[in-house]
Amino acid sequence: MMASLKQLFILCSFSAVCAAVQAQDSVPPAISPGIAAKLMVRGELRGLQMIDLRSQRRNDVLVVQAEVLNTDTVDTRLYYRFRWVDAGGMQVGDGETWKPLVFLGKQSQFIKGTAYGPQATDFKIEMSAEPR
Fold it and tell me: What pTM was computed for the model?
């Protein structure tokens, strides 16, 4: 009985350590809560992290630029699209197609989107990733 309790304690301790290491290895999809609020992540981004996000109006049309960093040494393929909405929260336009972008290990790249027209006042970036 004593040996089985000892084995159970060791097994529980090992499980807790593994869970802590796994939690440290996972990278949040955005560097800040403000950026995370603009993301719609499908699945896991596999080491990709949005580190910068900027938007502005040019000629009365909303333009967005985001910088995405691959924090891992493994190559990853990102799929993304922008969802444009008006002041009432309704979608503007027909919706965009998914755009692929390959990230090499530790590489950083910019993604850019331009709204369909002046009625778009806000956006979300929908993202999904897979190993290359």
Answer: 0.79
